Amino acid sequence: MADINLMDIIKEKNVVYKKTKVLTDKVMHYCPGCGHSTTHRIIAEVIEEMGIQDKTIGIAPVGCSVFMYDYIDVDTQEAAHGRAPALATAIKRLLPDRYVFTYQGDGDLAAIGTAETIHACNRGENITMIFINNGIYGMTGGQMAPTSIEGMRTSTTPYGRDAHLMGHPIKMTELVAQLPGTYYVTRQAVHTPNLVRKTKKAIRKAFEYQALNRGVSFVEVVSNCNSGWKMSPVQAVKWLDENMLPFYPLGDIKVPEK
Amino acid sequence: MAKVKGAIVVDTERCKGCELCVISCPTHVIAMSKKVNSKGYHYAYMENPDACNGCTNCAIVCPDGVITVYRMKVEEKTEV
Amino acid sequence: MDEDFVLMKGNEALAEAAIRSGADGYFGYPITPQSEVMEYLTAAKPWEHTGMVVLQAESEVAAINMLYGGAGAGKRVMTSSSSPGISLMQEGISYIAGAELPVVIVNVVRGGPGLGTIQPSQSDYFQATKGGGHGDYHLLVLAPASVQEMADFMPLAFDLAFKYRNPVMVLSDGAIGQMMEKVKFQPQRPRMTDDELPGWATTGKKPDRERNIITSLDLDPYRQERFNQKLVEKYRKMKEEEVRYEMFQCEDAEYVFVAYGTSSRICQKSVQLARERGIKAGLFRPISLFPFPENEIEALTSHVKGMLSVEMSAGQMVEDVRLSVHGKIPVEHYGRMGGVIPTPEEIVDVLIQKFIGG
């Protein structure tokens, strides 16, 4: 075995991964291990790799990711709760050569903004929608989300979500895949390296498809909310694997016809 | 014969100690420091640097992008 | 008559004027009595000649948020609706005011509360001039009184919206929206080119500038207070520079009707009727409802004995008139509600009954 000094390896010419410049240096306010951070990072990486920083306009939601604009270094608008697809609709129609994406949580996209989500998808707006589904309202302190799975304990379902009392968890991604205005619909996750790689590819496609003008590209990211779930990050990704993914299976739901 | 050697540099101030890199490292390079950064988080470090092959798994799973990964090919010396 | 004049509904005139204002986008949702606006626009197909986008949204909530997005991208965008629809938009309007975005909102008012009626009313005065949604903010409010003004106020509204980076409301009513009058349009203004878009807009971050962020959020109380103070300063500047009004036979008037929009048209006739009966009446017509022409109304107290605020409401603008005169003269209110339009005669009768007696 070669006697090799660490300092010989740690040289600029040997860099194989470093934080993208499209992510600002501001430390993200998310909790340790949060999927929001990972998803922000890979969106920023895609924007850098595609060379579209000067053509991208993001829409931040209300919820934990309300401060997305502090981290992803692109022009960004902060929408009222649930309304990001309406903003994106107008921006894309008025600036059709720009890349427009919304970033929304489950409360934003699947509860209060359901109408905006469905109709932007149904009109076939030529935008990318990123949907973070962690089954809980993180920002407000861990209340039930429209996507909280049955039996899931939250601060407003302290005995677990009872579908008879609180209704069923909603599968928005399957729902929007039924609409003719969606072009690419997929469900991904970001809690292991391979899943991050896959999600990044999906997000890249979702951005690239905007150039084709074929409709909405919709990427759900099944994510963790360690604080809301009251688990350590490592426990949370295990719980996600065992509980969230059986109900929200990963993979493409609608892919462009060749 | 060429062998791949890797190394990581952790931005310890930005590390939040989530340990996702630890469970994602296939060669068990990373552990959490007993020390904490200014925010009070135990941060990741290379406990077993010789095992690192620069696969980037840790950096790719790191939510906060605090890990920079380096990789180089090293010629193995032939024993005489 | 000049050949340039055409006969048109108020709602249609405002739609045509919007196109000619160089508007980039209209986003709306049908509601009586203003549905002709979007019907006119979709028939005119401005996207084929000026490039203006016209989109029927899924709700007023979506429409106002499309305005937020479009205005945030630096574009001239507008919507129109009527009272219940404007209520639905209030959240978005508050965000737009908080993010300092220039938009134009037309309210063709109908009677309320609730579904109320589809007949004209002026019962949204408070909502329009005092903010409407949550938080400390104001719209700049213009009140047209004719089909011609429905047209003329569109380019003005866009200019004021961009001058102040503030939402501008054109507060019309069902009568002016539906009536037909002759109207002459201003020539087509060009739409802004990409290079002319404002520097603060989210158009894509160029390497030579920081990213632009459109938001109404600031969790730091002291910064948020400074921002509120900035808004207050903006509204003060509007009061200095944007007060608009008309006076009709006020020079020698002993009694003055204060009325805007449809009511002001009726009160013109009331002035004439009152003078025929030997009463020196005049009319003060606020055109900008915010900023309210308070100094100009106060100035009239030097020779006016009393004012009658005539509104198609239970008495809303009357409060601003009273505040304006600082108690120097009595101010009374006369209003019809529920879509009822007062007659010139009954207004004169009320003036006599409240101020003169007999």
Task: Please write out the topology.
The complex is a heterotrimer of chains A (258), B (80) and C (358).
Chain A: H1 6-9, E1 15-17, H2 35-50, E2 56-60, E3 75-78, H3 84-94, E4 99-105, H4 106-112, H5 114-123, E5 128-133, E6 136-137, E7 143-144, H6 163-166, H7 172-177, E8 182-189, H8 193-208, E9 216-222, H9 226-229, H10 233-247, E10 251-254
Parallel strand pairs in A: 2-3, 2-4, 4-5, 5-9, 8-9
Antiparallel strand pairs in A: 6-7, 8-10
Helix pairs in contact in A: 2-8, 4-5
Chain B: E1 2-10, H1 20-24, E2 30-36, E3 42-46, H2 57-61, E4 67-75
Antiparallel strand pairs in B: 1-4, 2-3
Chain C: E1 6-9, H1 10-20, E2 25-28, H2 36-44, E3 53-56, H3 60-72, E4 77-81, H4 83-88, H5 90-98, E5 103-109, H6 125-129, E6 140-142, H7 147-164, E7 168-173, H8 174-178, E8 180-183, E9 213-214, H9 221-241, E10 245-248, E11 255-258, H10 261-276, E12 281-286, E13 288-290, H11 294-299, E14 306-311, H12 317-325, E15 331-335, H13 344-356
Parallel strand pairs in C: 2-3, 2-4, 4-5, 5-7, 6-7, 11-12, 11-14, 14-15
Antiparallel strand pairs in C: 1-8, 6-13, 10-12
Helix pairs in contact in C: 1-2, 1-7, 3-5, 10-13
Could you explain how this protein is built, in words?
The complex is a heterotrimer of chains A (258), B (80) and C (358). Helix content of chain A is 36%, strand content 19%. Chain A has 258 residues and is of the alpha/beta class. Chain A has one domain: Rossmann fold (3-Layer(aba) Sandwich). In chain A, the strands form two sheets. Chain A has a seven-stranded mixed sheet, sandwiched between helices. In chain A, helix 2 (35-50) packs across helix 8 (193-208). Chain A is globular and about 65 Å long. Chain B has a domain at 10-50 and 57-67: 2-Layer Sandwich (Alpha-Beta Plaits), CATH 3.30.70.20. Chain B is built from two helices and four strands. In chain B, a hairpin with a 5-residue loop joins strand 2 (30-36) and strand 3. In chain C, the strands form three sheets. Chain C has a seven-stranded mixed sheet with strand order 3-2-4-5-7-6-13, with helices on both faces. A five-stranded mixed sheet of chain C has the order 10-12-11-14-15, with helices on both faces. In chain C, strands 1-8 form a two-stranded antiparallel ribbon. In chain C, helix 1 crosses helix 2 (36-44), helix 3 runs parallel beside helix 5 and helix 10 crosses helix 13 (344-356). Chain A binds chain C through residues 53-57, 59-60, 66, 69, 73-80, 83, 86-91, 93-95, 98, 115-116, 118-119, and chain C through 24-25, 27, 53, 55, 57-59, 61-63, 65-70, 72-73, 75, 77, 91-92, 95, 99, 201-207, 211-217.
